[in-house]
């Protein structure tokens, strides 16, 4: 199968030029001016950007959490991702306490196999890591293509691991070519504050945010970086939400420490006032209960500065949707029972283009870098993914930079009954999406099938230095 994309403006993390692209089967084979080869399919990309497919390095499909299960499975979630211009997700498998890590990986393979619209990989959430289990970590890194691991400083009694376990995991993973991704929040102190609030009868959704201070996140980030320094390895902070936490990453990076961090669209475009909404019988704010919580609005400008200065390298979604009806309602009388998380896998690329590029905050190259190239590099997928180059997988998005769209739960494809950005108009829409050379979205209509996506074994991670994706914008 030969596909020719003609007349487009190719944008990567570093390039910006007009050329045609020939795709043979799953791979980009020729890039050049006015290509006249024969092809089975010709796509006219005149007036459009031609960018590498988005990589969302943080999703939770079909995840048991908070007494329920996230509302998107690997079929609906990846179909929605494809509509939004994302062609790879890295989802989180979970090892329950006492469970074998290999067994946990098998479970997540079963959840995803044959269902996805786009390619996928796994991080492994480790909740239990005695010395005897380190060999399983080694096997994941060397044989299974799972080279990153998430550990939690939050959610005591469920996911939290102690500092000794974190240090052990960091040292071992670092030696073997793996990376620890840290949920950095002081969950033990937060738990104290939460219990105090509940005893005092403060049960509404907004108290989720009010009981998780920015200092608790900053302390977690600081500790995670210090532990990584002691373990002589890199660390990646997930879903960083606020300036207090960002300062800790910046301080470390200024000293040359290989600390990396992602933020998410919700921290760039939403704020605490959404939690404080009192519609739906005082419960509307539950739609925005996520962890870390939404912060005061002024943090947003600081996060954008972090993105511009490369103290934040990646924007992922932390897509973890729960329906407002029946799922969020589990916490109707107690905010601590509201399942934490929100939908976002479909809206990331348009939100960041609109709020970043169209708003003049970042360049179009930086847009590609933070949504695709940097996660590919950090997580061992580059150059197969994350760029438009000869030999790379033909994960290509034809993106209309002028087209406008209004975000709504009525039109989105995520399997959830609300959208955090309801009614927001954005400029920049993925029109046609190719996943490994196959058109899966054509003129905004899904034309693929479940099972088009493949599991990606990722390479070992090399982040001894801090310069990955270090491009000034
Ligand atoms: O609220 C969130 N973020 N839910 C997903 C779990 C996590 O900590 O990433
Ligand atoms: Zn987390
Ligand atoms: Zn998450």
Task: Provide the descriptors you would attach to this structure in a database record.
473 residues, alpha/beta, binds N-(aminocarbonyl)-beta-alanine, binds zinc ion
Write a brief caption for the model.
With about 475 residues, the chain is α/β, with parallel strands linked by helices. About 30% of the residues lie in helices and about 25% in strands. The structure holds N-(aminocarbonyl)-beta-alanine and zinc ion (2 copies).
Tell me what the structure shows:
The protein is an alpha/beta fold and 473 residues long. Helix 7 packs parallel to helix 8 (243-254). 29% of the residues lie in helices and 23% in strands. The chain is built from 13 helices and 19 strands. The strands form three sheets. Strands 1, 2, 3, 4, 5, 16, 17, 18 and 19 form a nine-stranded mixed β-sheet that branches. Strands 6-9-10-11-12-13-14-15 form an eight-stranded parallel β-sheet. It has a two-stranded antiparallel ribbon with strand order 7-8. The relative contact order is 0.18. The chain has helices spanning 74-83, 101-112, 134-144, 163-176, 187-199, 206-210, 214-230, 243-254, 265-269, 279-282, 299-308, 348-358, 364-378, and strands spanning 2-11, 16-24, 27-32, 41-44, 49-52, 54-59, 64-65, 68-69, 86-94, 119-125, 148-152, 179-183, 235-237, 259-263, 314-315, 396-406, 425-435, 438-442, 445-446. Bound molecules: N-(aminocarbonyl)-beta-alanine and zinc ion (2 copies).
């Amino acid at each position: 199968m030969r596909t020719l994309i003609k007349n487009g403006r190719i944008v990567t993390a570093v390039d910006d030029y007009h050329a045609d692209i020939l795709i043979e089967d799953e791979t980009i084979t020729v890039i050049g001016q006015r290509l006249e080869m024969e092809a089975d399919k010709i796509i006219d990309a005149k007036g459009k950007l031609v960018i590498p497919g988005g990589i969302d390095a943080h999703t939770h499909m079909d995840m048991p959490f908070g007494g329920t299960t996230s509302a998107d499975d690997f079929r609906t979630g990846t179909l929605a991702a494809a509509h939004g211009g994302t062609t790879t997700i890295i989802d989180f498998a979970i090892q329950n306490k006492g469970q074998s890590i290999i067994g946990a990986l098998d479970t997540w393979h079963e959840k995803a196999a044959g269902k996805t619209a786009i390619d996928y990989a796994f991080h492994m959430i480790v909740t239990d890591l005695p010395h005897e289990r380190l060999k399983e970590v080694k096997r994941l890194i060397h044989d299974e293509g799972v080279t990153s691991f998430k550990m939690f400083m939050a959610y005591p009694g469920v996911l939290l691991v102690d500092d000794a376990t974190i240090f052990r995991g960091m040292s071992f993973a670092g030696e073997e070519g793996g990376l620890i991704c840290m949920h950095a929040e002081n969950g033990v102190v937060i738990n104290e504050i939460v219990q105090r609030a509940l005893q005092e009868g403060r049960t509404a959704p907004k108290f989720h945010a009010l009981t998780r201070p920015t200092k608790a996140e900053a302390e977690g980030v600081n500790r995670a970086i210090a532990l990584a320094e002691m373990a002589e390895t890199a660390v990646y902070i997930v879903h960083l939400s606020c300036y207090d936490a960002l300062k800790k990453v910046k301080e470390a990076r200024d000293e040359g420490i290989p600390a990396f961090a992602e933020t998410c669209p919700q921290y760039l475009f939403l704020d605490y006032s959404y939690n404080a909404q009192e519609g739906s019988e005082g419960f509307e704010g539950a739609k925005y209960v996520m962890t870390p919580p939404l912060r005061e609005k002024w943090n947003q400008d600081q996060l954008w500065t972090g993105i511009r200065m490369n103290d934040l390298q990646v924007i992922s979604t932390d897509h973890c949707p729960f329906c407002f009806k029946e799922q969020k309602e589990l916490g109707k009388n107690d905010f601590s029972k509201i399942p934490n998380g929100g939908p976002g896998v479909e809206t990331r690329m348009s939100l960041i283009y609109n709020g970043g590029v169209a708003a003049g905050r970042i360049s179009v190259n930086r847009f590609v870098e933070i949504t695709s190239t940097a996660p590919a590099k950090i997580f061992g997928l580059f150059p197969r993914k994350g760029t438009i180059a000869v030999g790379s997988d033909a994960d290509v998005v034809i993106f209309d930079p002028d087209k406008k769209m209004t975000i709504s739960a009525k039109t989105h494809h995520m399997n959830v009954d609300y959208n955090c950005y309801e009614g927001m108009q954005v400029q920049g829409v993925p029109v046609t999406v190719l996943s490994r050379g196959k058109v899966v979205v054509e003129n905004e209509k899904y034309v693929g099938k479940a099972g088009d996506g493949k599991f990606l074994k990722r390479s070992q991670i090399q982040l001894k230095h801090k310069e990955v994706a270090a491009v000034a914008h």
